[in-house]
Queue: 3 jobs
Job 1
Amino acid sequence: MAGRSTFDELWGTSRGRTARPGFEPLAEWIENAPAGDLERRQQAAEALFRNLGITFAVYGEQEAAERIIPFDIIPRIFSAAEWARLSAGLEQRVNAINAFIDDVYGRRQILADGIVPQDIVLGNDQFCIHCAGAKPPHGVYAHICGIDLIRTGPTDFFVLEDNARTPSGVSYMLENREAMLRLCPELFEAFPVRPVDSYPELLRDMLYSVAPRGTREPTCVLLTPGHFNSAYYEHSFLADNMGIELVEGRDLEVDDDIVWMRTIDGRVRVDVIYRRIDDAYLDPLVFRPDSALGVPGLMAAYLAGNVTLVNAPGTGIADDKAIYSYMPEIVRYYSGEEPILPNVETWRCREPEALQYTLDHLDELVVKLVDGSGGYGMLIGPTASRREIDAFRAALEAQPHRYIAQPTLALSTVPTLVDQGIAPRHVDFRPYVLTGSDGVRLVPGGLTRVALREGSLVVNSSQGGGTKDSFVLADRGGGDEGAD
């Protein structure tokens, strides 16, 4: 990153202190804040989160099993025009993801046409052979996608990852907004900020819309691994806000390929399960026999068309980073259009030339496991030690097909309150895209994650990152741009 100009989303690329057009009220708010005022508001927000129990778990860290994600009081802002482009690109990409999943579990035309290599799909750990030939109700597979975006300039947005299995973090988007409304109401007078509080309603409506055909009043539940899971707060939060039951595997049973929920008043048939359990743990009769989290017989009920699983089993094939590298071709294949949101340039280390380039430039690149997540299994070459680089070199040479490499981009920054005052910190962005029987919906917002350590590009909460509220501005011309 040395020598690269970093784009700041408030100040632009200028070395002066002139805010970007339309963002001047935020600059004035920051500069005119009384000494200690922002710190007090931030501490109040974190105390609020702690009192509400908004925590996550860090597996393997006994000394701090539950903690709050650090919250930053200075919001990130998107203009109406920026959001219009992002929402169009997200809809295009998620439609292509659903078409791709439907194809690879069905006709496999994209493989026959040589657009994506067969072995990278059919030999992938995320390919669920049990789902081959099966269609979920209404033909929707990836009902909820969290698409991770990065920015490098005024108009330069890139997709970094497609989270199509069980994307998390949306509760932080909602709670961050509640904190900002309570603690910084003057910002909502200065900016025409579009609301995000309709997300639980949109999610509930989507769940109802994908119930098996012929269901008049569907019963929906949220299936959680339990209170020891790192995202349990979010599971409880979403179930409560949607008005549906939060259940564990032991609360459900399958009888004659129909799913039932046990209640004190007797059994209730379940039509839609928003599952926050990975494929491997869903059904011990099909996947891991030692799983106590899932429901025996659940896959049989799903394959019989008697219950909808959200997201559908097998969606992880579109979540894999090796498949990600083909997403521009996948978008073109199914939409006939150029991708509105491009990928980050990616080298597939399974290819000899790409592997050699990666080995020759390890100290310059970001190298990732194709099935990694949470910031783990990743090398950031410019900040890595010689020992780390040597270890990755050995791993790449031993199993090159397990890795991709990408350039170390100059991620955009947003002013952030840190111990030393206000300083730029790198950010990414995860909007949440819902797909039901009636098409694609998304609220105007998402989760901004911020790397709180100076110079760091790792925004994951498990790696020391925090969150910010994401303001999407309404079009002052009288209309709200973008898809809702």
Job 2
Amino acid sequence: MSQWTDMYRQKLTTPEEAVKLVKSGDWVDYGMATSQPILLDKALAGRKEELKDVKVRMSFTFAPRAVVEVDPNRETFTAMNWHMSGYDRKLCAQGLMNFIPMCYRNEPSMYRDILDVDVAMITVAPMDKHGFFNFGLNISANEAITKKAKKVIVEVNEAMPRALGGRGEQIHISDVAAIVEAGSIPMPTIPFKTGDEIDTKIAEMIVKEIPNGATLQLGVGGLPNTVGAMIAESDLKDLGMHTEMLVDAFYLMYKEGRLTNKLKAVDRDKASWAFALGSQDMYDWIDDNPFLAAYPVDYVNDPFVIAQLDNFISINNCVDIDLFGQISSESSGTHHISGSGGQLDFTDGAYRSRGGKSIIALRSTFHNKKTGKDESRIKPTLLPGTIVTDPRSQVNWVATEYGMVNLMGSSTWERAEKLISIAHPDFREDLIKAADDMKIWRYSNKR
């Protein structure tokens, strides 16, 4: 029996015993997505009547959180979130969850320098022979959270893949206060779905902008998936990956021989990432795979690091853009949708890259279910209360199904002209009138 095995047995306990480490007034951290605990969450919820004023931070939730469900009046637990999933969004709309604004790259430093963590409860892969628990599919800010926490409880899940670093991908048993075994609870998955003919049209324009040897970052959703699938079917060569979110599109590129990382100036021969969500096949690919290198998000999303990668192509989508070039990817008016995430990190970093491009891609219209009408995503101004994710000063390329335009260096009248040129034709005249009223439409502008 090794010393680590003996220590493991000493610290192994039940969820109910483990959560007794939480006291009234504590700050508790669940981590992000696949890091969030299941058994410990239920056990903590079971202490509702004996605790007061427990603040729980989490992010990107993919299963109901018991501490929220058991406390609809927020008498004991106050839930807060760094980036909202569909489930989180509903809670936010009901006043049951509060959003924490951030640039994603800054999350680890906020834990190191500003935030208090009394107890961290993190899901991990089984301990290895050296006494390390692996954070698996979510590296992100877990190292910073657990180092700051006064007490760390790990929930060991045999279904969690073991992700190789990089760095910051693990915690040693000597830094753990309690261990709870969860058996094998399947990891949350998201299906890989490509978009329709409109997404395909946008993707075709974007793929033409990608040279051989480019390093890629992709967001999540039908449009980035369509871009990834199209790249996999292309004849592009020696592509690299440096992305906050590892998605199935990269796995598809790898299987088709497009993704090699051979030409990266940083982390050559390695595909670098901070967290992963996708199919079980992708999780199996991640498990113990030296081709992939997981890092904390303050490294992956650092614009200085991104800028060192030539021909860096960042592809993300958004909710709305106005004629000044302000982009919102997290709210529509005061209706909260997701979060700031790392879009601004990559918008900045890709622009700094030699030969790089930051591309914000969006469909020109959306169907408003409340009015039953199609509306333009390119607006004269953002709706009151809308959060600006990317300031107009940092926006590079914008793409819709009607074309791609580069806003960098463009005056307000040039921006208006360029953005109206890629708006849906049905809305262009109204946008021109609005631009004229706002004194950003020049007499010589194209119509």
Job 3
Amino acid sequence: MNNTVSPEQPRYTIPFATLTTLFFMWGFITCMNDVLIPHLKELFNLSYLQSMLVQFCFFGAYFTGSVIYFITSYLWGDPINKIGYKNGMLLGLLTAAIGCFLFYPAAVFSVYGLFLSALFILGLGFTLLQIAANPYVSLLGKPEGASSRLNLAQAFNSLGTTIAPIIGGFLIFEFFAVNGEITAAATEIPYIIFTGVFLLLAILLYKIKLPEFKTEESLPEGLGALQFSHLKLGILGIFFYVGAEVCIGSFVINFLALPEIMGIPESVSKNYLALYWGGAMIGRFIGAISLSQGLSGSKKISYMVIAALLVFGVIFAIVDLSFSQISTFLIFMIINLIGFFIGKSAPAKTLALFALVNVVLVFITIFTNGSIAMWTVLSAGLFNSIMWSNIFTLSIHGLGKYTSQGSSLLVMAILGGAILPLVQGALADSLGLQYSFIVPVFCYLYIAFFGFYCSRKLGDVKVESISGGH
């Protein structure tokens, strides 16, 4: 691959800043689904199963788009390699803008099916962005800084998922509500604004001169990547991880509204939802430091603690909650840090440990009430943090020429975010919302199995963290 940047070329600070904004926006919009679900559920008087069609359409678009891309690549060659990364990202931004704009007619006509169609198109746009932007960030600059750039870009993705419940929840549940009543129009202006943001990003990206990267390597024929057992198991790992993470995020607002849990309104619970996604951001920063091979033990511990406190401070600054209301979260942050120390920077071992911790946390959520159930479900985000990066890197370890093919198969497994929330929604309708959390329990049990399997098969292989989310 010709990815060398000549010394004469300028620094790409502005292009990289533009791309980090892109990462931020798709994290923000993805997490907006968690705010949309209770809004649309109340607006259209939906069952839990029907409300989970939001995630089904959005994440189902990832699967559909990835399959189409994979088949196209197999038959006619890699599309991004033909049109270029920049054009691929522009196409993704324009598709996402169309998806956001379609929320306007959906709100005007107040038709649930139109909302779902808009979400599907929005998801297709994000699929193109994922395929083009992730590898491009790693290529944009010196090779030795690739991991650092991707970590930083994905950190902005996590920042987007953290503040989306605050800003999005305020706009939908409060600012654009009419006399306290939630209407379909509450989604009009926010998504028109998002349309404008995506179009502005597209214009900025079009105007900026970016280096071109292409590969002359021929793709291997067939599905040779599936000869690797750890990849096949990893595909299921991504399926269950994304499914579990989306299941919890999708139901948190409704869960906290239950009288036996906290009985708090949506306008308040959106702040606690930000803690769930913010926990993932904390864990990703800590994980990036923990998995770094260039720091001494004492420095690593100091940096991890400092990073955790700094990110917690950022979250505290943006949520509309007092310190006493969120101080309990610090206890679980300490448990998270201890988990990293026990994991000893071994990705497979840390993955298995964190999955088992989440099994315990969600079990407690199911069988207790009040604030205990609230804090255990919210704290699962802390231990979700390194799952995507560790599952992904463990799955493609040692694939050689089949790495790209394996990566595309793993992206298809984001389908878990479409299927499993529907399963939990059906259980919530039949067994009750609290007992429906048994779905993520089974997901984490599989992830723990995958972690132990890789620990035995691959050993304590050291892989670079690509901390981030779906």
